[in-house]
Write a structure and sequence with these properties.
single chain, about 160 residues, 4 helices, about 30% helix, alpha+beta
Length: about 160
C-alpha cells in the first residue's frame, strides 16, 4: 500500500468534508438507523479547521484520498488535540486509521499529551483509540461544557488522553 499523509489543500477540501461527513453519518446510522439529521454538520468541520493551531491532513493511497484528520497544535503547552479523524466509508478495518495516527505522532514529536473524544455509541472508535492508538479514557462528558465542547447532543462523549512524555 502506497500510503502518504499530506497537508490538505483547498482543492481537496470539498471531497475531504464529504467523505468525513459520510463516514460519521453511516457510523451513526449503523447504530441507530436512518436519520434525516446531519451527524457531523459542515459548520463543525469548519470550526475545527478554523481553530487556532489547526492543521488538516489528508491520507492518500495510490493518489486517492482515503481519510484524513484535523489536529490542533498548542506550541506553548504541547498539549494537542485530535479534533477529527476519519477513514473513508467502505475501506475501514484495513489499518488506514492507524497509519494516519502513526504519521500524526511522527509529525508532532514534541507533543506531551494528545486529547480527543468520540460519542459513547462509537464502539469501533473506542476500540481504535484505546487498543490501537493507546489512548486512555479519562472522562465521560454528558453535556456541553464551559469550554464550548462540541458534543453529540447531550448523549455523551468519551474523552481520551495519550501522554507522550
Amino acid at each position: 500500500m502506497n500510503f502518504k499523509l499530506e497537508l490538505l489543500n483547498k482543492e481537496d477540501l470539498p471531497i475531504f468534508k464529504k467523505d468525513m461527513q459520510e463516514a460519521f453519518q453511516i457510523g451513526f446510522e449503523e447504530n441507530y438507523g436512518k436519520t434525516d439529521g446531519t451527524i457531523l454538520p459542515e459548520k463543525d468541520i469548519d470550526e475545527s479547521l478554523n481553530t487556532k493551531g489547526s492543521i488538516a491532513y489528508k491520507a492518500v493511497v495510490d493518489n486517492k484520498i482515503v481519510g484524513g484528520a484535523v489536529v490542533v497544535i498548542n506550541e506553548e503547552t504541547k498539549h494537542n488535540d485530535l479534533h477529527l479523524l476519519y477513514v473513508k466509508y467502505g475501506i475501514q478495518a484495513k489499518g488506514i486509521g492507524k497509519m494516519i495516527w502513526n504519521e500524526i505522532e511522527k509529525l508532532h514529536p514534541d507533543t506531551i499529551m494528545w486529547e480527543t473524544c468520540t460519542p459513547w455509541f462509537e464502539k469501533r472508535n473506542i476500540h481504535f483509540y484505546v487498543n490501537k492508538c493507546k489512548f486512555h479514557i479519562v472522562k465521560y462528558e454528558r453535556e456541553i461544557n464551559e469550554e464550548g465542547f462540541i458534543g453529540d447532543g447531550g448523549d455523551g462523549m468519551f474523552i481520551f488522553q495519550k501522554v507522550m512524555k
